[in-house]
Design brief:
The protein is mainly alpha-helical. It is 55% helix and 8% strand. The protein has a three-stranded mixed beta sheet, covered by helices on one side. Strand 2 and strand 3 form a beta hairpin. The longest helix has 16 residues. 29% of the residues are buried. It binds zinc ion. The site of zinc ion (ZN) has 7 residues, from helix 2.
């Protein structure tokens, strides 16, 4: 597989920001990093990761450079919304798809919509969705939170608990804030 180069990322990141997310991060607080592997336990691709805490977007070196625009849009849409692949992320992705159509990039628009229909699942996304669920339903149990998110991905609770080892920790962390 062709690997991503630093130069390509340096060129694409400002382009994607300017065209698809012109109002985001005006202060330039977010950074982008190319990394060798993005660790995760569950299944799925690991092309990118958005870390709100450090305001960093990680992009894996190990993916098709042709998909870079999509990966950047997917991750920046996480940076501007919260709650994994929930409603707000879906709406922001749809907005990006419409923008792609406007500028004549209909293939990219289609790719964005395919991504929304079957989103890439990263560990970070799962924790984010659980975090948001617990935040808005603080009385629900850990089991209820896990079931809610696992169901959205057509998985069992046990699979999720095995794949995402920090679920309990994330749950307790949010509970502690209430
Ligand atoms: Zn995601």
């Amino acid at each position: 597989m062709v690997t991503m180069s630093e130069a390509r990322l340096r060129e694409k990141y400002p382009y994607i920001r300017r065209v698809f997310f012109p109002r985001w991060d005006r202060k330039g607080e977010w950074r982008i990093k190319l990394c060798d592997r993005i660790g995760m336990n569950g299944p799925g691709r690991t092309d990118g990761l958005c870390e709100h805490k450090s305001k960093t977007i990680f992009v894996s070196r190990e993916h098709d450079p042709k998909e870079l625009d999509l990966v950047l849009i997917h991750e920046i849409a996480h940076a501007v919304t919260r709650g994994g692949h929930g409603e707000r992320w879906v709406a922001r992705m749809e907005k990006a798809a419409r923008r792609a159509e406007q500028i004549g990039r209909s293939e990219l628009a289609e790719a964005i919509r395919r991504e929304v229909a079957a989103p890439t699942l990263t560990e970070d996304d799962v924790y984010d969705e659980v975090r948001e669920f617990v935040d808005s339903h603080p009385k629900e149990s850990l089991k209820a939170a896990v079931s809610f998110v696992a169901f959205r991905y057509g998985r069992t609770d046990d699979e999720f608990l095995a794949w995402y080892p920090r679920l309990r920790e994330v749950y307790e962390e949010v509970q502690g804030e209430h």
